[in-house]
Amino acid sequence: MPATDKTVLLSTAYLPPVDYFLQLNSGAEILIDRHCNYVKQTYRNRCVIAAANELQTISIPVVKPDSPKCPDCDVRISDHGAWRHLHWNAIASAYRSSPFFEYYEDDFRPFYEKKYEFLFDFNEELRILLCNLLDIAPKVAYTQSFIEKDDEHYLDLREAVNPKKPPVSASFKPYYQVFEQKYGFQPNLSIIDLLFNMGNEAALFLNCN
Asked: What is the pLDDT of residues 41-54, one digit of tens each?
């Protein structure tokens, strides 16, 4: 996690990876950017979970913006393809046998039964729930306008926490995973992998990395 006195700048993310939560739990002030331009194939609308036979990426469909540049806060969720049903089934199938899924499933299921108009709002309500369940209280605020990439006042991790790039955190201590015997420990999956497998000890993992 970053050792910095600067405010850490993050983009919105759907059930973010463990790396994202390590930044949230770093003790730094966090600013989640509402106004940076939406970028496809990022954690903004996708997450990676450990299914029975392989890692699985699940993505929220979004409405194609009217212009090439669209702020994250204006991106709308599409109802195409019954994605809520598919996502919940994928999550339940992957983690039903994990030690803590049944303990937390009633917290998460409503997110896949209610319709949200904007991706940012959906992501943030999930993030707030996750912070509560993990018993962490990051100092989070939101941007009021667009922030340039080279602004020296911030540690800009908006595009650094990215599925196409190495994690910001140098290493991850392994934790119990249901399917580890099949294909080994898989680091930096969605934070729900840590939560469903480790329960209230997930916070200890975040504090020890």
From this structure: 999 999 999 998 89
The answer to whether the pTM exceeds 0.85 is: yes
Please give the tally of structural domains in the chain.
1
Inside any domain, residue 134: yes
Please give the C-alpha separations between residue 190 and each of 14, 142, 153, in angstroms, as whole numbers. Answer: 9, 22, 29
Give the three-state DSSP class for 73.
helix
Structure tokens at 42: 């990022």
pLDDT above 70 (res 173): yes
Residue 29, domain member (yes or no): yes
Both structure tokens of 208:
């020890």
Give the residue carrying structure tokens 């992998």: 193
DSSP structure string for 87-153 = HHHHHHHHHTTSTTHHHHHHHHGGGGTS--SBHHHHHHHHHHHHHHHHT---EEEE-SS---TT-TT
